[in-house]
């Protein structure tokens, strides 16, 4: 059906992947170094892994990070879908552009500015700093990227599709669940994964809005920089990386077997 | 009926906009009118138009442009060829996966990789090129920035490519169009929306990039993002920081106007 | 749609499962209880075994939270909304926090171990009579250089940095006060100077240093110096002692023209809820045995005279990190110059960075 890649494209993709994973392998290699820092590889050891597994504080922080990332990505995806639909349904081009511009404000704003202004907002409104404030902030700054990922899909959809469904007597909910959502599913998953990325990467915003004992991995890693980041963080990242990798690949193949060809959905 | 449908989607979205976009913008604009001592002033805006800040603005735009351009050049073929692999969705996920590892850790890894005695220089040496200074150059800055942003470019382009109507390609083939012509006349125009949203997702945050400017560029590159960072966290001159933030928002609105689609 | 619903249900299920696990762990660790103390410190800036020991001795559960810069920490305390019982800012930040009423006074009667602190480190200008702060660690700013790479050229003071032989060989710490400060010092001005013509002179002198500077960096300076990316670096003494253990060719010198003397002190922020526990914690950290253990772990210089006696001579006799009084006399502590002046310092520093392009 479609042409498969020749040698050139394969080589190109291979290079892209090698570069994408190079720093990560570098990190992993050092997680086995018997030294204390990420330079001068000494001997092989597993002691950093032992340290990680014994450190409950670090474990709690990791769990916090995962909970925040999953919840905020899922909720911001839902909110982002609403946003994309809202923009799509607004027929006036000017209003559409105004909404899009507002949408992008948080993407262009420096993390520190977002963090500081959210902190002020939360204290004005009286939200207790901690889990809730961090979750709300992560949802807030992930929404725009979801909108950006979903909107092009909506625009590709031919309007006649909706009209046809309506003519056939489909209810509003039917149109959404049976016509629109299946069509934009790839965009939705793309948005979800980008939101996840934003959440896992964020340091500055989380730092400002966290409190009362709640902490995430990025905050912990950045504040360790002054003393030098110890290799147990490398070991931890390696563990997390492999766990996600196994989950992603596992889920992909299970989904593939169940659904015959339809994957977990970043694609079609 | 139709109007009510619209309103329903707008409600949660507008609530979000009001709470987390409009309110912070108002706060930022408010702060931009105060100096370090907490007095009302227009001085921050005056200061923005001095050569130091104008030069910084120009260089920010220049680097953001370069980063976006290079990302596009690398991402497009990647996305294109990805769509043709077996297990393409899996490969796509594997493109995103590295971005889940903490940025600071990856930056430290890059310091090691690009270092004078690092693997890159070992490779160059064995190729007979000899040791080069890679760290703290424009090259290392662009490389790492593109590295960070590339998933944001690949994803929308990939989605656009996937949605393309393949019968058009077959038709073009049947009509004897060369591969290049097919690409230029059919594939690229059809994926333009994806390219646009990819460029937005890269260019806009690239304007306010920071940390990388210090870590891998050794402060040789100073962007507006770095300056905001400085003003908020070091000088605690929130007024000036807010002023730069206001300009970034205006610049973004301007870019949105330029790239908006025409019906 | 079915696929979407299923995917999202799975995500929520996993998230709530993890949430329960976190809750369970928090309970098991005792973080949920009433008797807690929140310590706000730099990451990895304490021997965590001491926290456990403190918990055992007092029955108070310590929640250890971290920050990555003094300024960010101050913003958090200023805005409130969260509890911090003990924090460890640097001295200029303490002066600022005092001014803005962010600190609670410390009751010396509750700190019997205060007597172990070397009187040199008490009653300093940034906090007379230590009303608000108790010394934790201290140090200097100086030059780290690589003996092998410099082929035994000796470095004595700031002015050696301008040597034309050191082209592209110097790394600077990314701090306006530090960089402007050493330029001022090299001109024999005070590093707290506010005279405009002196400042301009210092900035002009820095511009001339441009060809020698390889990069202006943050905490990664340590890694770069150990890896011999550059032969010289302007660093804090704490960083220096750490990396000298990892690369034997590195040497640290406190410049003869004078330099900065810094302190990280323990304070009780106004956000404290467990003031009693905070005093207990500070007193615990002042105990010579605990302070010595902490010093061994962190590697910075301790102000605790009794603790110093417990440390090996290799550490306590090291004049580079415990300089004799003749030298410390030449060192200056940063004064709080006020926001306007600090802003000006930063503006000059920014111009210098732009000059390098």
Automatic annotation (TrEMBL), chain A:
It comes from the Bacteria. It is a multi-pass membrane protein. It is found in: Cell membrane. PROSITE patterns: ABC_TM1. The chain crosses the membrane at residues 12-32, 58-90, 102-125, 131-154, 175-197, 235-254. Keywords: Cell membrane, Membrane, Transmembrane, Transmembrane helix, Transport. InterPro entries: Bact_Polyamine_Transport, MetI-like, MetI-like_sf. GO terms for biological process: transmembrane transport. It holds the Pfam family BPD_transp_1. One of its GO terms (cellular component) is plasma membrane. Residues 62-251 form the ABC transmembrane type-1 domain. Belongs to the binding-protein-dependent transport system permease family. CysTW subfamily. This is Spermidine/putrescine transport system permease protein.
Automatic annotation (TrEMBL), chain B:
Keywords: Cell membrane, Membrane, Transmembrane, Transmembrane helix, Transport. It is a multi-pass membrane protein. It comes from the Bacteria. GO terms for cellular component: plasma membrane. InterPro entries: MetI-like, MetI-like_sf. The keyword Membrane applies. SUPFAM superfamilies: MetI-like. It holds the Pfam family BPD_transp_1. The keyword Transmembrane applies. Residues 57-259 form the ABC transmembrane type-1 domain. It is found in: Cell membrane. PROSITE patterns: ABC_TM1. One of its GO terms (biological process) is transmembrane transport. The chain crosses the membrane at residues 12-33, 61-83, 90-114, 134-158, 201-218, 238-258. Belongs to the binding-protein-dependent transport system permease family. CysTW subfamily. This is Spermidine/putrescine transport system permease protein.
TrEMBL record, chain C:
Pfam families: SBP_bac_8. The keyword Iron does not apply. Its main location: periplasm. The keyword Membrane applies. Gene3D superfamilies: Periplasmic binding protein-like II. GO terms for biological process: polyamine transport. It is found in: Periplasm. The chain crosses the membrane at residues 7-25. GO terms for molecular function: polyamine binding. Spermidine binds at residue 92. CDD domains: PBP2_PotD_PotF_like_2 (cd13663). GO terms for cellular component: periplasmic space. Keywords: Membrane, Periplasm, Signal, Transmembrane, Transmembrane helix, Transport. This is Spermidine/putrescine transport system substrate-binding protein. The lineage of its organism: Bacteria, Bacillati, Bacillota, Bacilli, Bacillales.
């Amino acid at each position: 059906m479609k042409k498969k890649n020749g040698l050139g494209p394969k080589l190109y993709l291979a290079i892209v992947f090698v570069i994408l994973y190079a720093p990560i392998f570098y990190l992993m290699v050092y997680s086995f170094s018997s030294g204390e820092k990420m330079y001068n590889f000494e001997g092989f050891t597993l002691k950093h892994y032992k340290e990680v597994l014994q450190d409950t504080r670090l474990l709690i922080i990791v769990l916090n990070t995962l909970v925040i990332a999953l919840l905020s990505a899922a909720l911001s995806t839902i909110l982002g879908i609403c946003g994309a639909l809202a923009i799509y349904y607004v027929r006036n081009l000017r209003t559409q552009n105004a909404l899009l511009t507002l949408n992008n404000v948080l993407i262009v704003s420096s993390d520190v500015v977002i963090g500081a202004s959210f902190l002020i907002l939360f204290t004005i409104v009286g939200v207790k700093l901690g889990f809730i404030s961090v979750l709300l902030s992560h949802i807030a700054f992930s929404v725009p990227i979801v909108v950006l990922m979903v909107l092009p899909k909506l625009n590709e959809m031919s309007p006649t599709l909706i009209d046809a469904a309506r003519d056939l007597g489909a209810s509003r909910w039917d149109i959404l669940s049976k016509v629109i959502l299946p069509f934009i599913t790839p965009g939705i998953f793309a948005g979800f994964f980008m939101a996840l990325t934003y959440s896992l990467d964020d340091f500055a915003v989380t730092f400002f809005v966290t409190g009362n004992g709640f902490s995430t991995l990025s905050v912990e890693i950045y504040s360790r920089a002054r003393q030098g980041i110890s290799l147990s963080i490398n070991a931890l990242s390696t563990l997390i990386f492999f766990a996600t990798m196994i989950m992603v690949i596992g889920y992909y193949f299970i989904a593939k077997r169940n659904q015959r060809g339809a994957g977990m959905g970043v694609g079609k | 009926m139709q109007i009510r449908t619209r309103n329903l989607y707008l409600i949660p979205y507008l609530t979000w906009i009001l709470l987390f976009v409009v309110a912070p913008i108002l706060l930022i604009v408010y702060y931009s009118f105060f100096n370090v001592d907490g007095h009302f002033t227009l001085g921050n805006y005056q200061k923005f138009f001095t050569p130091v800040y104008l030069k910084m603005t120009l260089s920010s735009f220049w680097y953001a442009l370069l980063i976006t351009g290079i990302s596009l050049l690398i991402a497009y073929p990647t996305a294109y060829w990805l769509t043709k692999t077996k297990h393409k969705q899996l490969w796509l996920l594997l493109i995103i996966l590295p971005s889940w590892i903490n940025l600071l850790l990856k930056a430290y890894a890059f310091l090691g990789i690009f270092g004078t005695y690092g693997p890159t220089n070992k490779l160059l040496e064995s190729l007979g090129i000899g040791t080069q200074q890679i760290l703290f150059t424009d090259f290392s800055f662009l490389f790492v920035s593109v590295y960070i942003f590339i998933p944001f470019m690949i994803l929308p382009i990939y989605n656009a490519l996937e949605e393309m109507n393949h019968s058009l390609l077959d038709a073009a083939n049947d009509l004897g169009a060369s591969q290049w012509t097919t690409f230029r006349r059919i594939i690229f125009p059809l994926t333009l929306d994806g390219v646009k949203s990819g460029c937005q997702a890269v260019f806009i945050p690239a304007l306010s990039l920071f940390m990388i400017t210090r870590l891998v560029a050794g402060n040789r590159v100073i962007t507006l993002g770095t300056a905001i960072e400085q003003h908020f966290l070091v000088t605690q001159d929130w007024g000036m920081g807010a002023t730069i933030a206001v300009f970034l928002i205006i610049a973004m609105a301007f870019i949105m106007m330029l790239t908006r689609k025409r019906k | 749609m079915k696929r979407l619903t299923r995917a999202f249900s799975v995500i929520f299920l996993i998230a709530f499962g993890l949430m329960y696990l976190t809750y369970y762990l928090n309970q098991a660790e005792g973080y949920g209880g009433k008797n807690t103390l929140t310590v706000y410190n730099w990451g990895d800036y304490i021997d965590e075994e001491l926290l456990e020991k403190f918990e055992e001795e007092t029955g108070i559960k310590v929640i250890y939270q971290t920050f990555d810069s003094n300024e960010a920490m101050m913003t958090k305390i200023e805005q409130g909304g969260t509890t911090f019982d003990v924090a460890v800012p640097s001295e200029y930040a303490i002066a600022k926090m005092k001014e803005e009423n962010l600190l609670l006074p410390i009751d010396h009667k509750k700190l019997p171990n205060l007597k172990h602190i070397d009187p040199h480190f008490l009653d300093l200008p940034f906090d007379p009579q230590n009303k608000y702060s108790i010394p934790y660690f201290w140090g200097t700013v100086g030059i780290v250089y690589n003996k092998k790479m410099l082929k035994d050229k000796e470095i004595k003071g700031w002015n050696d940095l301008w040597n034309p032989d050191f082209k592209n060989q110097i790394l600077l710490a990314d701090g306006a006060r530090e960089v402007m400060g050493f330029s001022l010092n090299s001109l024999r001005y005070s590093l707290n100077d506010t005279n405009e013509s002196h400042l301009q002179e210092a900035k002009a002198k820095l511009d001339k240093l441009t060809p020698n500077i390889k990069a202006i960096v943050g905490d990664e300076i340590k890694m770069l110096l150990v890896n011999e990316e550059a032969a010289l670096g302007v660093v804090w003494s704490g960083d220096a002692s750490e990396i000298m253990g990892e690369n034997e060719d590195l040497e640290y010198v406190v410049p003869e023209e004078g330099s900065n003397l810094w302190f990280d002190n323990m304070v009780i922020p106004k956000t404290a809820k467990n003031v009693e526990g905070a005093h207990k914690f500070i007193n615990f950290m002042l105990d010579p045995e605990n302070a010595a253990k902490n010093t061994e772990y962190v590697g910075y210089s301790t102000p605790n005279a009794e603790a110093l006696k417990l440390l090996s001579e290799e550490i306590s006799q090291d004049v580079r990190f415990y300089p004799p009084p003749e030298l410390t006399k030449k060192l200056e502590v940063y004064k709080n110059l006020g926001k306007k002046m600090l802003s000006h310092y930063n503006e000059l520093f920014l111009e210098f960075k732009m000059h390098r392009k």
